[in-house]
Amino acid sequence: MHREDKREAFSSSLGGAISTVIEYPLDTIKVRLQDDGKRYGSALKCIKSIYQDEGVLNGFFRGLPAPVIGFAVESATLFLAYRKALESYQQLVYGRVVEQDTESYDAVGVSGSCAGLVVAQALTPAELIKCRMQIQNTLPVKERIYKNSFECFLTAYMRRGIRGLFRGHVAMLYREAIGCFFYFLAFQSVVRSFLLEDQKFTDASTMVHFLAGGCAGTAFWTSIYPIDIIKTKQQAKKADYRKRGFLQSCAWLYRKEGLRGFYRGYCVTVFRAFPGNAVFIAVYEQMSYIWDVVHRTSPMHTVHV
């Protein structure tokens, strides 16, 4: 692995882990609303219910270790896979690799989708454990069988092997391929729109990167939210979705709840996506700067996506 790749992996993994911790309470609310929105009615009622019945740590942060590890790995893998896909796509389609962050938008989008398909392999088990831990306190006491994330992982594996850890994998593949297409496209287009004619991508201010990161996160979740609803219901082992495939699950949810069923918890998700991605970029930039200083190279503290 080249030094730049190591820096990319180090900075993005820390950014992914820290941003996950910060946005996790809102993610818990999102999953609860997706799993059983009729039970809570609204995000505010969901927050009140979790706080009163379960407390802060046991309610809002239950199941945190798995996604912290999973999303740290995902972030590192995503950006490395994106760079490799970008180089390969340009060589295949255009016969040459242009200067970084000046690539055509089709190259950016397609490479983002390819990177999404790669990270989905690691993300599916992490999301499955996260979802089951987040909804466990909503189940009858005798059905709360997991003491921690590791026990949840072992139980899923012992019951159905690798297949048990990859429930909802098709939905995850769709989610990451489509979502990452719009994520990278939105980030690049927002940053480039603020550049003057003689400026380079690295000349963009930190605030521009924050704004672009927030827009990218919003674009990701807006483009795939109905798919994420299906993924959550399949991974949470909802009875109506247990033996249904992706398309069958979509049809069933539409018959039961209409279009509204595909967007439960959407506002909470978008509200968390903007600051979450801003934090990710802030951490990424600082860690990249520290890495460069430690390795005595010229500091480059701008995120390249």
Q: Can you walk me through this structure?
A:
This protein is mostly helical. The chain has a single domain, classed as Mitochondrial carrier domain (Mitochondrial carrier fold), CATH 1.50.40.10. 75% of the residues lie in helices and 0% in strands. It is built from 10 helices and no strands. Helix 5 crosses helix 6 and helix 8 crosses helix 10. The C terminus is likely disordered.
Helix and strand layout, with pairings?
Blueprint: H1 3-40, H2 43-54, H3 56-60, H4 65-93, H5 105-135, H6 149-165, H7 169-193, H8 206-235, H9 246-257, H10 266-294
Helix pairs in contact: 1-2, 1-4, 1-10, 4-5, 5-6, 5-7, 7-8, 8-9, 8-10
Q: Concise description?
A:
With 305 residues, the protein is mainly alpha-helical. The protein is built from 10 helices and no strands.
**Tally of structural domains:** 1
Distance between the termini: 19 Å
- Number of distinct helices: 10
Share of β-strand residues: under 5%
CATH architecture: Alpha/alpha barrel
Instruction: Tell me the major beta sheet.
Output: none
Structural class: mainly alpha
Attribute tags:
mainly alpha, Mitochondrial carrier fold, disordered C terminus, 305 residues
